[in-house]
């Protein structure tokens, strides 16, 4: 005799899908549910991060720039940061000026190429980034702590497969 699995708890996305099914009878409940949950989760993490950063007197774009620098072991060229942040090089210049005035980064002329500028995190920049990322990381762990380590690995693997499709080259956006 097969045991019935208990019905999973319902979240607000289940109600969202239920509202759309009569309007769109061919709606794939699982696709709509997965996409909507990813959107809500991304929105939750974005709001959490922005709220958390207020306590460190950091705006989202400042944190993102410090984070990009930290990911390059604390040093990068402005063009590398523009690529990492997917923004125009001119936008990076403004960010760097603000961060430099605050003592979180230093910009120096490159020793390899006098035409180039190198950007480095200062000790204060490293400290601000570490403190800020701590709370963000704790919230990510809190949320994904609902899953076992094996489930987290499986979720990551499944999302990677979806991302690979999204990142297919020469795929026109319509």
Automatic annotation (TrEMBL):
Annotated PROSITE patterns: HTH_MARR_1, HTH_MARR_2
Pfam family, one: MarR
Domain HTH marR-type, residue spans: 24-164
Keywords in alphabetical order: DNA-binding, Transcription, Transcription regulation
Keyword Transmembrane tagged: no
GO BP annotation list: response to stress
Record field: transmembrane: none
GO molecular function, one term: DNA binding
InterPro entries: HTH_MarR-typ (IPR000835), MarR/SlyA-like (IPR039422), Tscrpt_reg_MarR-type_CS (IPR023187), WH-like_DNA-bd_sf (IPR036388), WH_DNA-bd_sf (IPR036390)
Protein name per its UniProtKB record: MarR family transcriptional regulator
């Amino acid at each position: 005799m097969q045991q019935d699995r208990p019905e999973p708890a319902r979240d607000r996305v289940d109600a969202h899908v239920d509202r759309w099914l009569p309007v769109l009878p061919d709606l794939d409940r699982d696709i709509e549910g997965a996409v909507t949950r990813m959107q809500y989760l991304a929105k939750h993490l974005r709001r959490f991060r922005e709220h958390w950063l207020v306590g460190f007197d950091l705006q989202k774009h400042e944190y993102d720039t410090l984070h990009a620098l930290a990911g390059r072991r604390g040093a990068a060229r402005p063009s590398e940061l523009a690529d990492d942040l997917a923004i125009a090089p001119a936008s990076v210049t403004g960010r760097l000026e603000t961060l430099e005035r605050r003592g979180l980064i230093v910009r120096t002329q490159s020793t390899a190429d006098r035409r180039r500028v190198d950007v480095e995190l200062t000790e204060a920049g490293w400290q601000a980034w570490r403190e800020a990322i701590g709370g963000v990381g704790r919230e990510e762990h809190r949320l994904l702590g609902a899953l076992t380590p094996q489930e987290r690995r499986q979720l990551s693997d499944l999302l990677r497969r979806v991302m690979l499709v999204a990142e297919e080259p020469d795929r026109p956006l319509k």
